[in-house]
Amino acid sequence: MANTVKKLAGQTAIYGLSSMFGRLLNYFLVPLYTNVFLPQEYGIVTEFYAYVTFLIIVLTYGMETGFFRFSQAGHGFKTTYSTALGSLFITSAVFLLLVNLFAQPIANTINYTLHPEWVRWFALILAFDAFSAIPFAKLRMQNKAKRFAVIKLAGIVLNVALNLFFILICPKIAEINPDSPLLIFYSWNIGIGYIFISNLISSSFTFLLLLPDIFEAELKISKALWRKMMWYSLPLLIGGLAGMVNETIDRILLKYLLPGSDSFVMAEVGIYGANYKLAILMTLFIQMFRYAAEPFFFSSAKDKNSNKLFANVMTWFIIFGLLILLGITGYIDIVKFFIGVKYHSGLDIVPILLLANLFLGIYFNLSVWYKLNDKTRFGAYFAIIGAVITIVLNIVLIPVIGYMGSAIATLVCYFTMMLISYFIGKKHHPIPYQLRKIAMYFIFAGGIFVVFQLTDNLNQSLELLANTVLIAAFAGTAIWKERLLLQIRKKNMQ
Length: 494
Hints:
globular; mainly alpha
């Protein structure tokens, strides 16, 4: 068991470092955006990327997990890969064609009549990203974590470099030397559109880097296998869509439910979106874990001690998640400067969103029971329940307490999904999670958070010192306790 945990940790480290480093690079664009653009402009960016999160789920329709499942089920790796890749190629091409035909009506519908080009750019971004999902899944399946990381990072580095070039460097050049040949690529009028252009170029570049993996596919689709994969994956699509409702519908609903002028409303959307970014480390941790854990859970399912292994993984996941929560909230006076001062009015939502995302991570851990037992419909059920909670609470709370209502809705949603999945999972695939120990860690972390609030009135240096000591105490206690238990188990086995 120790070796398998080390294997998971190693894979998580590679995926995690690439994902974390890449996301952190993107994260460092947030100060740029929030200092260059007004909150109402950043609100547009927030809204568009909320639409993207929905559409990428539709365009991949659970094929990644289907590919993992059926490539392990005796259908042949190449056949499964070619079928999944071919399916995504067809659907991505049809999507791209339809959006380009109806770009102006779509732009009219979402109140961006003057910018149908934004709709076309995002259609290309989505088509490239959706089609690239299966080649990336192939690299994960083959444990080619280094190649996966290099390609991901290359695309992200290019995206960041282009953002800096268009948003920071070109305006400076235009002021100093308006006739510079570099400005052939630049126009003042495009503004936030350069964020979208940078994304489009980086997505197409990533696609080109994946071409060797794409060309490994056979030019055929197994219809029988495709039907099985769709039957398995469609519940994941439904669950994924409902999950995206839980993650991002608030940024869309805010635009339509907040009272006030259009400028005020989009500014509030921008403030909410920027402060949501301060919870990025929790999101990164969950994402990097999922990249490594999903294939790991499938490959470890046949081990006789798999349930104990899954329980241990859950405990360590929660320990690290709580450390991230404490780290961000304990150093919020420093972390807040990653976004512009105009956005600091939304800092109160950060602890709520951190805890909400930790519950989401626990839910992802719990989902192992229905994925291993081919009962993916339960994932759809849970996500739909969460989506109903999210929509209802946003509709009720946003007009009353603004974006704080969206943060509370997110917390209630993920907490409910976590509880339902745990109790139903106990009946179908009982896993001996260490509930008492987990509860102890939550209580300990909760007590530290309360002390954080009490030290808020201290001199900032004293406050940071006190918070550092408390965070170190939590980390030290967890390490000591887990090592002690490991030593006891080893003695009992001898």
